[in-house]
Amino acid sequence: MTTAQPEFMSASVVSRFPILLFVAWRNIWRNPVRSSLTISALASGLIMVILYASLLEGMTRQMVHFATDISTSHMQVHRQAFIDDQDLYATLPWSYLEKIQQAHPSIQVSPRLYAAGLASSSTTSTGVLIKAVDPKTEPDVTQMLQHVRHGKLNLDIADTTENGVQRYNLVIGAQLARNMKVKPGDELVLVTQAADGSIGNALYRIAAVLKPLEPNFDRMGVLMSIEAYQQLMYLQDGFHELAIKVAEMKELASIQDTVANKLKQFAQEKSLDELGGKAVVRNWRQLSPAVADLLEMSKAFVFIIGFIIISLASLGMLNTMLMAVHERTHEFGILLAIGMKRRWLLLMVLLESFFLALVSAVVGSLLGLVINDYFEKYGIDFSSAMPDGYDWAGMIFEPVMKGYLLPADVFTASIMMIMITMLASLIPSWRTVRLKPAEVMR
Fold it and tell me: Are 393 and 337 in the same domain?
């Protein structure tokens, strides 16, 4: 005569699992205060990870925006000697403009020239970096000319003297304007050594003051038109830099290869002087390696910080499950005594941990999305402490840090939290497997 087994023990695996799910769900609400505190701790950790991922993604996107759309553009072409030593004579022929654009019609190009000089106002003098752009094509590759703080951007001729000498407008950096105590409408004298060896000098009118774009340019930058530059420097042969903007960022690598191959072909057709070196095309990642490195490390940062935060929050889960197992030791002993398999007892405790983690993931994700919506709209405003923005990796960023949340970040953070909490629950779950019914029922 055999002893009848309890209904749960004799049921099939398919019918056992729904019962375990129901029992596990009921068990976590035996002590609602403790479970609520555990859920709050885990959800708070998840919210912190979501906000951190959002702010980091927003910062990196702002960096890419400033590294490409504001001043650098997607690619640049220089002579090697200009890259190495800022050689004034390391220019590219003007014919390269049309040839490069014909090689890939979807791109936009704009030439630039550079020089060093001395700027003098009525009260002070200082060294400056002269940058010349084409006002017609520069807006096609960057938004530099739109970042005006004071005045109205105008690089055309300001007026003509009685002797027929044309006086041009120019634009200066914000810090340079403060250091020299000048403002739009004031006059500025530039003195430099021209390309022919003579002393170039001219009187200019300050048309506008730019917002901070780059630390060096903000402190020393003078922006003028190419025509004004050629009149000052007597350099007609070519340009120092070609800024290139692509239509789609995904085409950047292929277009860079195309332009590089065309430059080699141009060099064979018309060889450049050896002193200036070969023509080199570099994308924005090569031009701003610090920003590119941060982009590569940003996901690792999110994972590491998220792992630390959630691991600390999971200690609350570990404490909760240890207390639950300790309080229900007698109950577990009875279940084992009437024939419940240890693996089912282990699974029940794991399911309780899973439900706590799942509820925490849902609550944390929803609250994280709500809070993140504020950061995406308004961001964190540092303008009171840093009105001119903050400097990082050779670029100046707006003083408002806004978030940008990717759905994949929410999913990844939630899965990571569930996995870490389940690993933390293995310790109390393993204690149930080692229970001896005869001892715990005394």
Answer: yes
Confidence of residue 431 (pLDDT cuts 50, 70, 90): low
β partners of residue 221: 129
Residue 247 has pLDDT above 70, yes or no: yes
DSSP characters over 402-418? -----HHHHHHHHHHHH
- Provide the percentage of residues in the chain whose pLDDT is more than 90: 24
The domain containing residue 414 runs over which residues? Answer: 7-68+291-440
Which pLDDT tens digit goes with each residue over 335-379?
666 666 777 777 777 888 888 889 989 999 999 999 999 988 888
The verdict on 84 and 22 lying in the same domain is no
Question: Of 237, 271, 287, which residue constitutes the final position of a domain?
Answer: 287
Q: Which of 194, 256, 190, 198 is nearest to 223 (CA)?
A: 190
What's the start-to-end Cα distance of the chain, in Å? 29
Q: How far apart are CA 368 and CA 413, in angstroms?
A: 11
Q: Which residues make Cβ contacts (< 8 Å) with residue 408, sequence separation at least 6?
A: none
> 269-326 pLDDT, tens per residue?
666 777 778 889 999 888 888 777 777 777 777 778 878 887 777 777 777 777 766 6
* Rounded (10°) CA dihedral 285, 286, 288, 291: 40
Label residue 398 left, alpha or beta by phi (over 0 means left) and psi (-120 to 50 means alpha). Answer: beta
Report the C-alpha gap between 76 and 184 in whole angstroms: 31
Q: Can you read off the two tokens belonging to residue 397?
A: 């960023």
How many CA atoms does the CB half-sphere of 233 hold within 13 Å? Answer: 24
132 has pLDDT over 70: yes
| Chain mean position to CA 43 | 26
Question: What's the rounded Cα separation, in Å, for the pair 53 and 313?
Answer: 17
Residue 275 falls within a domain, yes or no? yes
Residue 285 and residue 292 in contact, taking contact as beta carbons nearer than 8 Å? yes
pLDDT-derived band at 110, boundaries 50, 70, 90: very high
Q: Give the lowest-confidence range in 169-183, 258-272, 278-292.
A: 258-272
Cα–Cα distance list, 243 to 141, 260, 379 (Å): 7, 14, 31
119 and 235 housed in the same domain: yes
Structure-token pair, residue 428 = 């109390």
